[in-house]
Amino acid sequence: MKIDAKNLPAVSIGDSKRIKVGEWVVAIGSPFGLENTVTAGIVSAKGRDTGDYTPFIQTDVAVNPGNSGGPLINMQGQVIGINSQIYSRTGGFMGISFAIPIDEAIRVVDQLKTTGFVVRGKIGVAIDSVSRELAESIGLGKPIGALVRSVEAGGAADKAGAQAGDIITRFDGKTIERATDLPRIVGEVKPGTRVPMQVFRRGAERTLQVTVSEWAKETKTASEKPTPAPKSGAEKSPIGVAAVDLNDAQKKELGVKSGVLVEAVQASAERDGLRVGDVVTTMNNVEITSAKQFRDLAATLPAGKPVALLVRRGDAAQFILIRPKAIGE
Predict the structure, then answer these.
(1) What is the pLDDT of residues 207-218, one digit of tens each?
(2) Domain spanning 234-322: which CATH class is it, in words?
């Protein structure tokens, strides 16, 4: 909306990055058509993930139909957010409302004014979260970062040397606390920009240089390949898994340099998520190069302590935690 006027009063803009959980805020709007209504509450949480790109401000300020688009204001009279949505099972306010941080709103407005559309960056990875148990098993320490399940062939991450099974811990100098942080942080980077990306791989940190590409709405998802029929032999393994070597043709087809093919699993390993046809590439950060090495490593594992297997399934990778047992159990 644009009007021809001068000397209009204007609100001051605050810094949404400086807000604190527990501080008082007010919302102004027209709920149910009741104009200039002011409601008050506190900031309940920051960076609430309800979508891929916007870290919402969560409050307990009463927000109802007619409040959307109105300002969220701090006690200094500064706009720190734009009231956007609520969580409700009835359609009415239930104590949980969300506002778009004003910093994000201004960034989007600037892009719209400059180009007429919003551009977001992407690097071409499918990701998953990192559990506490997994972090402890692979030596990461605490559950931070985004686990790379698959890497888009020819994409920005692929060109930078990222691999399925990497855990991205920092991007463009910003720490990835949760997996959901990564799409937002990558999306904020201008396409074509070269930035550092820190990954945790096989027990060590390394830094890759990524040239961010432009996000497109249509992306291809990897399909899982059919798995061969199970065979016997898993009962002799302390982790309930029987595996065989990969030949050169299989390695080329799967896009791996090493690993072993799972040909049989016991019920315990199957419950943990392992399947016949999976390819195990590492065990507790140790690269698996042969079936004999796989068996020898499994034989040295202490019973009951989780072991982290990095597994390729189709075009995707994931960590699976299995608890070894004593032979004969």
Answers:
(1) 999 999 987 643
(2) mainly beta
